[in-house]
Each structure stands twice: as structure tokens, then as C-alpha cells.
């Protein structure tokens, strides 16, 4: 198993950053890599329970479904959820776990994304590209 950790600083309060990470209307504005839109979704990270999203490639129309369970909600500090990709037959694959943690900095707030229990380093590298791209979208919204 492989773990991934990313950190980004934002010039906003921790409370404001937390809302962008959990509120469905705001989350949908940055969720998923650049070049993807969100089709079907039940993406509410404000409360424990199931979630899902289907990312659709803007150019290809290819669909990527991912789902899980929100496992903990601790506003404005952290939210955790399981993560599992679905295959072409809609069978959910191996499960990993994501935690968004928010901390105060001298200039605003820091987001730490911990994505744990990924299958291997190739899967970790793929998720790092995806999360980095999504964070670029979030940065554009918060700067």
C-alpha cells in the first residue's frame, strides 16, 4: 500500500476553506481534474454517509465513477471519506481513504490532503496528478 500527501496554502480563513471543501455547491466547482466535468453526483461531505461522483472527460466523454462513505466530519478542521473507483460494469474496486485537514497559517489556511492505502506507486502517481489538477481549480477560485 502507498500513501499520498499534498499541501496547499490559501489566502482565506480556515472556516472559508472548509466550506469550499465540504459544501456541495462549492465542492462541485473544483472537484475532479481539469478537463473534467461532474455529471451524476451525490457529493455532500458535510455529513457522514454515502457519496459518489461521475467525472466526464470534456473531450472524450469518457466517464469515471468513484464513490465511498464520509467517515468523519469535524468542522472546520477535517473531513474524511473512503474512495473506490468503479469499473465498466459498475463494480467498485479497492478502497482507499482520503482526509482533508485544514489548519491556520500566518497568511490564511493550509489544506492537507492525505490519500492513504492506494494499491501501488503507479496508482499514487495517478492520484497525485488528479488531486494537483483539482487543487489548481480550487486555487483559481480562492485567489
TrEMBL record:
InterPro entries (alphabetical): ASHA1/2-like_C, START-like_dom_sf
Lineage: Bacteria, Pseudomonadati, Pseudomonadota, Alphaproteobacteria, Rhodobacterales
Record organism: Aliisedimentitalea scapharcae
A Pfam family it matches: AHSA1
SUPFAM superfamilies registered for this protein in UniProt: Bet v1-like
Annotated ranges, domain Activator of Hsp90 ATPase homologue 1/2-like C-terminal: 12-141
Similarity comment text for this entry: Belongs to the AHA1 family.
Membrane spanning residue stretches: none
Record protein name field: SRPBCC domain-containing protein
Top-level taxonomic group: Bacteria
Amino acid at each position: 500500500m502507498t500513501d499520498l500527501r499534498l499541501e496547499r496554502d490559501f489566502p482565506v480563513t480556515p472556516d472559508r476553506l472548509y466550506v469550499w471543501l465540504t459544501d456541495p455547491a462549492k465542492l462541485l466547482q473544483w472537484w475532479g481534474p481539469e478537463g473534467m466535468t461532474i455529471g451524476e453526483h451525490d457529493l455532500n461531505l458535510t455529513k457522514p454517509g454515502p457519496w459518489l461522483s461521475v467525472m466526464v472527460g470534456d473531450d472524450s466523454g469518457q466517464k469515471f465513477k468513484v464513490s465511498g462513505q464520509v467517515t468523519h466530519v469535524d468542522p472546520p478542521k477535517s473531513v474524511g471519506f473512503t474512495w473506490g473507483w468503479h469499473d465498466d460494469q459498475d463494480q467498485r474496486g479497492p478502497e482507499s481513504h482520503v482526509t482533508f485537514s485544514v489548519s491556520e497559517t500566518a497568511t490564511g489556511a493550509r489544506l492537507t490532503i492525505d490519500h492513504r492505502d492506494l494499491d501501488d506507486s503507479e496508482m499514487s502517481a495517478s492520484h497525485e496528478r488528479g488531486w494537483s489538477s483539482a487543487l489548481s481549480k480550487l486555487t483559481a477560485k480562492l485567489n
